[in-house]
Each structure stands twice: as structure tokens, then as C-alpha cells.
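Lab notebook page, bench 4
Experiment: in silico fold of construct C2
Operator: M.H.
Input chain length: 243 residues
Purpose: comparison with the prior construct
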Amino acid sequence: MWDSETARRYDAWFETPPGAFALTREIRLLERMTSGWPRRGQRLLEVGCGTGIFLDVLHGAGFDVAGLDASPAMLEAARRRMGERADLHLGDGGHLPFDDNEFDFCVLLTVLEFCPDPGLVLREAARVARKALLVGYLNRFSCYGLTMRLFPGHTRGPLRQARWFTPWGMGRLLRTSLGRRPCRTRSVLLGPKASWREAGPWRQINSAILSSPVGAFCAADVCLTDAPIMTPLPAFKAKACLG
């Protein structure tokens, strides 16, 4: 399923007007959810990194990034995008080839939808991460999810085989896999895909970061430590060094 043609179409989707619109909103949500995480010297693993689009964003945010994907074609696309800026691995999310607590953070963005055992992948991610996880998922209980179910003929590529999560279903999966841990969820893209555009009121409706998990793309962060994860205050005061 995840061959070189799929990788090409995946990247091409984000170059279309609705795809580019959705990507900028998903990146904004990702930045908001990780805004309190320290960056300098912090190792971050993305499980299911695909072609490296979000790895690029996370590297630009200051993390030392690594990526893992089960598809050689997707990983090759990530290598072309990232070069030497990321440590990339071919492997299975259910059996991560890393030591316990090898990373500070782990992110899984629209990857559990395609895993035969999402709980196992979550437990493996929590095993290799010391501080926190971020899980992004497609929301079955959204306008986008509803239209995809009502008009299945419009669903193409890997999304035909995706497992769409409800917010309460994801919450239950996180609790059963990781235990009861501090967790918060935010979402973006309130309207259906036809409304993902810059014109008119749709821009405001779909750009808002929603405190309720009603948008098409949801993100849940899970704290793995006893204390909240946050950037030290001196880091906010530091000024960039200008050459």
C-alpha cells in the first residue's frame, strides 16, 4: 500500500489548495501542542514519519529529530527531504528498535489509523520516550469524517483502509494502553473538506484551534512524568544570536 506512487500522491495532496490549507492548520496545532516542550538537546522520535513533512517542521522548531517508518518508499522520500538533519530508521511501530527512554518525546501523527494493534504501538512509544507523547488522529466524529462515510466513493488511497477514531474511543485507547495520565486534546478543521479554503468565513472557521475534539484533525498530548513538561523561563528570555 505504501509504495513510491503512494508517497508521491501523499506529498502532492499537500500541494493542492485544500491540502495546503489543511497542512498549515495541522502544523499550527502541532506547534501549539508542543509549545511548552523544551527543545535544545531534546531528542524526538516520530513513529510513522512518512515522507518527513512533520519531521521537517519539528526539526525547524529546534528538536533533535529521528523518524521511523515501515515503508521503504516513504522513508526514502523522507531522506530526500531531510538529508542529514534526521536520523531515519526502517521498522515497525509495534517493535521499536530503541532502548527504554532513549528519546525525550515521541509523536505519532495519523499513524495509529493504519496499525493492526494501536495499543501496542502506543505502549512502545511510551517505552522509548521519557517525557511525553503527542498523538494526532483523524476524527470520525467530525464534519470531515461524516462526509467521508456518507460519500465513500470520494475516499481514495490509503484512507480507504484507515481506522477512524472517535475522541472518546481514542481517550479509552490511551487510558487502557498507558494508564491514567495527564492528557489534553485540541482540534482543527471544523468544516468539511470543501470548506478548507482561504476565502470567505471558512478561513476563520477552520483556522481556530478548538478546545473540544470536534475538528477533522485532533491531537492529544500525554504526559509521562509526574511533573508537567515545560520550557524553562530563561529559554523564553534568550535572544537569537545574529551573525
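Observations: The chain is about 35% helix and 20% strand. The two ends are 47 Å apart (CA to CA).
Next step: discuss at group meeting.
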